[in-house]
């Protein structure tokens, strides 16, 4: 996938290159002095970078993609998934090109270079809103899968409840507490994003395992006549149904958001000329997973597909070993989200620290501040996951606001600003298209959501 003016050769970034003024370097240098002497780090590998970026992309958004097929139909839905991948690559290429020109080492630094300190603050606020929302969603989903949830007066038992019955130790609060202390906290303590490359590879493997099981179930039920052919095109009957089509856009935007980790991965890459191939490889892998999940998830459940397709796997599949397969799907994806958590938490911590302590030394060089910011953020997300009852309205809100700014509006704005006169006419035309598409589609999505909410709440 290639869009935009991509430089075929990119000079390896010199460590002596001076970053944007007042930029706080968010990463440890490749050779740094620790308590036990010098810690050698020769740079992240290509595969490690691909896995970290892929894990950033594949999060909870994949669970909502089959539901977008219910709204858009398979032909339009799959086309938009692929189209969104091309736009994402184009926006990241713009970010990298202008970052190199301005010697920026972070997304905030790029926006500061283009629009001053307010541009940097705007990026930091958007990353905080987007990532806190996503991490809360992840933790809520894990609680739903492991401990169960009650929706519309109906209790959906969790995996642990199904296995062992109802006990205090498999209740939602205790399960999330143990998960936070035993998994999230240790993985969130790493100071280099490359330290998460192994867990990222495992996370991608778990997402693929979820996909393979789903495909297997779909093929079995298709062969035995247990499913009907899904709808190919959207069901458009009136103006309201047209507006409803736009509600899928925020979900697709959130599904590809990874821009806040691009600089961190690029900074640690052994050869930064490989960053664009890393982006293409990660997007190709994730798009394949997205398309197959969307197609087979919608094929399996049809018009009964829920907003979170994971919730469809708590009912009988009508096939041998159905309950075992249900549990395998839910557990594999819950484990996947556990390993996605630290990769999304990493930029959240950096941006919150940069917003609160803009003049302090880099966070990785201050152990006390690093521990304090990490502890406070994890505690806040843990409390939010225990007290927020619904996730999907917040999910769409994030996609229609912070996520669309990070993914498309900010990179396009930097390109149109063009401080270094390196943008082509094609770049600027594409940037205008990105902004118009983002603003129009998300205004329509917000209007459609508000209209649907008003209709549900109004007396009959």
Automatic annotation (TrEMBL):
Listed GO MF terms: L-amino acid transmembrane transporter activity
Compartments where found: Membrane
Record's bilayer topology term: Multi-pass membrane protein
Span of domain Amino acid transporter transmembrane: 44-448
Compositionally biased intervals (Basic and acidic residues): 19-34
Region (Disordered): 1-34
InterPro entries named among the record's database cross-references: AA_transpt_TM (IPR013057)
Record flagged with keyword Membrane: yes
A single Gene Ontology CC term: organelle membrane
Residues spanning the membrane: 41-65, 71-90, 121-141, 173-190, 202-223, 243-262, 282-301, 328-348, 369-388, 394-416, 428-447
Keywords: Amino-acid transport, Membrane, Transmembrane, Transmembrane helix, Transport
PANTHER family per record: AMINO ACID TRANSPORTER (PTHR22950), AMINO ACID TRANSPORTER AVT6A (PTHR22950:SF643)
Protein's name according to its UniProt entry: Amino acid transporter transmembrane domain-containing protein
